[in-house]
Automatic annotation (TrEMBL):
Top-rank taxon: Eukaryota
Protein name in the entry: Myb/SANT-like domain-containing protein
UniProt-listed InterPro entries: Myb/SANT-like_dom
Record domain Myb/SANT-like: where: 1-81
Lineage: Eukaryota, Fungi, Dikarya, Basidiomycota, Agaricomycotina
């Protein structure tokens, strides 16, 4: 996944927050619609199926939650450019 791909995916999810199945997951139709966003971009690499997109979303949420947990620790800092490397 390139940064551009992740940006496309996050923008798609941002536009479809009303289609959430629960507090942190989307309905299958949103994942399926995301597949169509990547078809024109496919020139190399694996096809981004609905299952692949779902796994990427799960991974992004885990990373985000890990950063939040880290930031909540006393004396810990997170920067979007440098990460924890102050």
């Amino acid at each position: 996944w390139s940064d551009h791909d992740v940006s496309i995916l996050l923008n798609h999810f941002s536009k479809n927050t009303s289609q959430m199945a629960d507090a942190s997951n989307f309905k299958d139709t949103v994942y399926n619609a995301a597949v169509n966003l990547f078809i024109p971009l496919l020139s190399a690499g694996a096809f981004k199926s609905s299952a692949v997109i779902t796994r990427k979303w799960t991974s992004l949420k885990q990373t985000y939650n890990a950063i939040l947990t880290y930031q909540d620790k006393s004396g810990c800092h997170w920067d979007n450019v440098h990460g924890a490397g102050i």
